[in-house]
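User: Predict the structure for this protein chain, please.
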Amino acid sequence: MKLFISGAIAVLLSCTAFSRADGAVFRDRASFNAASQNLITIDFESTATVRNGAGFVEIDGVFFHNLNGAPAIVTGQSGNKLLEAPTIGEITRLIVFLPPGTTAVACDQFNRPMILSISTGESVTMDQSDTSTFAGFISDQPISSLTITLDFPEPTPNALVDNLSFGQRRAENEPPVPQLLVTSTGRAAALESMTTASEPFHILAPHFLSPDGRTRITLFVVGVLLDPADLTVVTVQAEDAQPQSFDLPVEATARVRNLSWMSQVTVRLPDTLAGSGDLNVRVTIRGKKSNGVPLRIE
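Assistant: Here is the predicted structure, written as structure tokens:
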């Protein structure tokens, strides 16, 4: 599943495959919120949009594609801002491409009838007699997209969406599992923290901006929302081919700018890693280990 990031890197998410989808549909937000965690909500009130080609709009790294031209933000009857996806008369189809690691998604949809469905197979039909504008979904598989569609009656109504929320399903009281992002070649999505250069990395920094002359690299994480105060609950380990394990000192944690659902972890490369070659790197957050991703140190 490719993720397109304006002005940054294209990444893939390494996900665990499930033998079957185990999902649920919610018709009220309170129940959905109780079954979810790490929710990010786009309310369309003050969010700047970035157009990315015919039929596409990007908001906070989420892509909205409409069959009949790019969706637009409009003012609803109560004065709130909504995302409107116009019909072409015979069919309405708005596809929301969700961030990697999404296993919970929900929104309010104000024109009916309309069918809401997710990529893992769950769906709900909202008709004129429906008393709720809300539909939410959770799944044990990554949800790559939410589709709002209708091909009857004619003309079909426009899709009107508000309060799009996405995050992860809640597994009882367990903290969420972090997932490290990888590039399209399957390598760790990692950048030298000052120059934003990619691998291979070297222990000695390629510039004079590091006070101790050592390289810092930034890893990108989804599934867990990190702020600077979370530094003490994050550790990073690298394992070589022997296998021998090395701790990579974590020096900073934060959200990625303009992508509120993605976090970053900055580590210092210790001298013991010099010339290690390919390593398998994992991040552990509040006791939960991520997937392992390959990273090269020369």
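The longest strand covers residues 159-169.
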